[in-house]
Design brief:
- It contains 40 helices and 35 strands.
- The protein is of the alpha/beta class and 1443 residues long.
- The strands form 9 sheets. The chain has an 8-stranded antiparallel beta sheet. A 7-stranded antiparallel beta sheet has the order 8-7-11-12-16-18-17.
- β5 and β6 form a beta hairpin.
- α17 runs antiparallel to α26.
- The longest helix has 38 residues.
- The chain is globular and about 125 Å long.
Length: 1443
Amino acid sequence: SRRGRPSDGDAPKRAPPPILSGSMCGNIGMLLLKEDNAAVVLTLLQKMFDVTMARGAHSGGLVTYRKEPSGDQRGSRTRVVNGKRTQLGELLLARFLRNIERQRRFGSASAISAPQLFQGHTRFATSSLTTLGGCHPHQWTPASRQTVWACDPISGTFTCSTRTVEGFITHNGDLDFFELQPGRPIPTEDLQLVLPHVLGAKMPDVVDSACLAGLLDLHRTRGLWQASVRYGYVFGGLRDARDGMAALLKSGALLSARSLDKIADALAHEWTLLLKEDAKAAAAAETAPNAGALVPSGAAAAAPNDSARMKNQLGSRTTSLQGADVEDGFGATGDAAAGMAGWRARAIASRMHERAAALLGSRAAELGLTLPPSCRTATMASETVSAFFEGGLERAAKLILRRASGSFGLTFSHSLDAGGAVPASGTGCPTTGGEVVVCAKGQPMSIAFYPSLGIVLFGSEAAATKAAMRLDPDNNPWWSPERNAAHRAAAHAQQTRLPSSASQPFARDSSAGHPGDEAPFRYDLDDHGGEVVLLRWRERPVQRSVMDPAAAPPQRDDPLQRVPLLSPPPLALLPTRRTELQKYEDGEELAFAYFSEGRSGELTFSSTALSTHAAAAAKPSGPTRVPVGLVKSGGASRASAAAPTLRRRSIPLLDNPMVLPLPPTVDDPVGLDLQQLPPTLASLRESFGELGAGAREVGGLPRPALTNQRVARELAAALLDRLAHRGDAAAAGGAVDLDGAKKDSVDLLVAGCEVSLWVGEQFVSDLRTALPALRARAVSSNKLLALFGQNVPIPQLGHPIDEGLQIDGAVVLLLSHSGGTFATLACAKMLRAHTKHVFAVASEVDTHLGRVVNDTAAAEAAVGAAPAAKPAAMVPASMISAPAAPGLGPNQAADAGKTDGPAPPRRSASRVRDASASDDSGAGGTGPRAPSVSRCFSTLTGFRVAEPCSISVAATHQLLTHVLLSLMRSLGGSRPDLFPRARPVAAELATLCGASHLEALREIVGDGEQADTPTGARLRREGRRWADHVLEGPLSWILSAIYILVTVLVGFTPLSAALAAARPLFPSAAGAAGTAEPASFVALGYVVGVLDTAIYAFLPWWTTVLLRLAQRRPWLHRVSGRSILIADIPWVGQCAEAYLSKLFALSYSVAGLTVYSANPHDHLVHRHTHRVVRGALLAVGRPDGRVHALAAAEATSLLSIKQASSIQSLGVTCETLTLGHNPWPLPRAIPVVLPTIRPQFLSEKLLGLYLAERPVPDASEPGNATGSAAKKNAADRAAGRWLSRLSPADEPGAPPRPMPAKSPNALGGLYAHLASLARLPPAVLRILLAATHESGYVPAERLDEQVVGVRLSPIDRGRQARFDALLPAQLLAEQRTLEVLYETRCASLQRLVGFFVLFHAMGRRVESFWSYVSFGVLAYDMSRTQSMMRVATTASPVSGMDI
């Protein structure tokens, strides 16, 4: 809900702006500077739209500015509303291309040519309907032809031209309030009433973002008298009015746009007279005897006095026009004439101020101008003239964001600034250029620079700006390996002809502040404090007089120029010298220089921070790396910003292991995710140091070796500090103790949304199992925001969580695969006030969430760092991992080789490193190091476009498994008093989660395109069979339609044709009226008619039955829509349900699927047995009941399934498919057995030995004198058979022979009987003793290879243990923790991946069916849903207003 808006009379100081708000909209943009790469524009825009659509894609738009022959720029906007099954990017770009081609003038080379700006947007309608008017880019005032004034910095004269005036904005976020008067913020509803009255144009749409387009028209005033008068009236004349804007409008005291235009015409006339007077004075000065002294006479002679007077009147503002700085001589280069021209222009501006004040004051009546009493004419005149000279695009953006309340990711562009001729000081060459402004305040925005391509990408999704990192050759129609090879060869030949001084034309010196020569880099705006970035490009023709002849640019017919530039360009096409380039304004930095079509150009960058605290942090002091901007307020000179902002905060995009490229564009993104799942999990294992130091390539991509290991150590150190704090408090008599006496206090708080929360809940459950003394809790991010992020807490009705939850000082782990989920991201910022230990899990470090937690940690580390510590490089903390190494970004490569280093300044950190020394694989670091700021785990999956989550869920779960192992090792080693068994259990669990686990996943995933594995082929076969169940509806329709069509066309049915053929068998009866049909034949005809009617009436049922019989499927299933119930432990069932329901989200209703999930150990029978009908589909995940701790769990699951299957009709019930590792089949179920590629548990070995001994008679029975000897011999034979499985004669690496298949009930009973024995069988004692003596049957290391859990028995407690006194129940109980963790961390993940493969084959078959039968007309993409939203970036259900 929106805050109560203030009344006009109350005049509150200001509505407090929210720290963060949400919107499921996305900005994208591109600046093309090199003509050679115009062909890849649509490819990159398509890729950017594909990525940004993850934030929502109900509608979208794109605008560019086309060049007119006169040099004018005119906007060309395309907007579309997306359909349910259409692709927004494809739909929009196809229509956009038609529009620009239609508007292209005849004879022009191309509709896309450099330099050209593209500004796009995708929208998710959160508070209004999806309409075309609500689509971005927004424009308030339609395009109009107006007189635009500009200043020539060489002569100081002002010239006018008639140009097209229009502006566009793209916005993601919310506009809540805006200050038209100081200290009087008005809500958006009132602003929508005021703007049409002042601007003279009706409101284009009711969405709040449209108001920002109107505010751009109100603030972009430079060179425009109409816009300047409007600005001066609103922000000057009514500044101190007693009534607010809404009250003035209601009372009729607010001047209309027509009245303001009349004032503008009067000022324009006065301006023209002033220029004529100045021209006459200048002409008189030229004919004067002292003209050669370059001292102007007349009006220009009074320049110094006029300039001083202007300063007093306008304050310390910098009066600039079209990029020319009045106060600094309009960019004068030191030439005396140019300097005097600047003084002349300033004198004209000062005199215009005086005339405007007089015209609006004493002369208003004689000119017929009527101003209301509430208008202060002097202030209006001052603001009007200032706006005329100063109101450029950058100033407009800064004023809008400072006066607005809400959240903003904004891009501003204007036709007057999008290109065309611009003033060029110090040169006679015609100069062209333009500018665009990118802003962030409460919403993320990023800008990526690609110097070699001459392309700049910007947008709200940082991942979208990586579109140009790796252009896909398989999906780029303009890419050609042969042409690319020719391009490189021509570039090498060109370089060899250049002199050494010109071999590096774009090399940036350190003073310029550029991260690399031609390597791409990205700049992330400060969305917390607010930041405005101006990108300005300038071009001019190459002057051959300043070039080496050998370095002349190639001609148009050069083959090098005809090859699209998709690889690094030739190094030297133009020797760039800073002295020959246009002088920068103060504060601007060179982003890169480029050459295009015989013109040299430069792209400059300047940044402005909106908050004062960001300005103070901008000054580098010590090792701080917090990304903050530089303050450049209206009264401050840009020269005060000495630190190179672009250099300090740039992130290298290539050869940076922290920045993963986008996945390739394929027809089946879901299938691609599945295929990349096993290698990604292998990389995760390596990132935790499981395989030693170094990095390897997986799929051609370098992976950091030990990045996640460092974050895990930081997490363990934080938890040890938390435990130490609890212990100190308990010793001091506090309320907090190690037994958890204080209510709802937690040590580790895990938060997330949807699938991330479900995975986190299982992780917390396993933490409690493995580390019972650690108080861990999983909570929804929305609940945390509702309780701790609102001015008035929202009660969590029905949930066991309230404001009594103690989170102060707790260690927090936030889970968000995208790194942009609103609730989780808001928690990362909100929790700063409660704890300093905030960690995150995301798809990569280079996400918004990763940057937030790492930058916060960097700021804290900088505070505690020694003053002598010196940072390795001033780059954002989110991209820092260690000192730089070749090929990696600054401070990002220590994890590739060095893992040790000085411990953080924590009491328990050293113990963490000592405890995990066995996990380190690199040498200790030497020398001083910067404070560690690693707080974000990376799943190494990168950005994913598919909405059904598969690889992201699996990778997050696997990463948390490694985190669990790390915590068990570290905490168990540092606090053995609290966690005595953590380390040995972790050692055994690591064996199960290692290579065998990854091999099992490879076997499950297989390869559906090439040679598949047996398990993968079985899963896909069952998936396609279940797809036939779903497709029987449309197939029945098709068969029915064919039957009806044929019978109608031929005029008879099969039965009527058979009756006609049998007509001769019925003799005719002669009558008076002629021959009559036999009565029997007539009666049979009626019977055939009735049968044909029944066939037509129930034709879909008949065709369905025939189809089932032909496909060998049960024919008595219910003929209706199918439903599927997934039964497994909660996290598996919920994730599989979300995955499958999204796969079928766009399927047509006749082939739809209803999906449920249930826990078979809890509520399946109670909640879902009433839904059981004939043909319902039931997918069951079975725990591995062959293991002692899981036998009862599997028996419980199968009991629930049997009870559900007992509900029958016509002898038919639901169709059940079981998925698990136990090969024992469930009666009347389809078993899919997953491979068991792991060592056997000790409990399995014990049961095998017990079964081998069981037939032996008991020695205590009467009459059995030889019982003792017989039993010993039987035990020896059993031990020999058991040991033969472990002998070296077996094939190395071969899995152990499984125990004979038995039902879970039988296994449970056998385990119970084994546990009831008074002592271990002798064969078991011999095995345990063999592991402790060198002369035993089997070496201990061989035993460890084949049996898991041996180290948890007394065998690990010393050689003096009395194994004969060990009870079987005790031995089995010691294995329970390990067996339960194996089920939740490994076996359940394998089942989930099996479900993924099964359901993907099912959905893929249905998707392909519609494309095939309709020739593509009814095709859809199963990787997306109707909501078209993968990342929940909106404030829902918790409002973002009070966060």
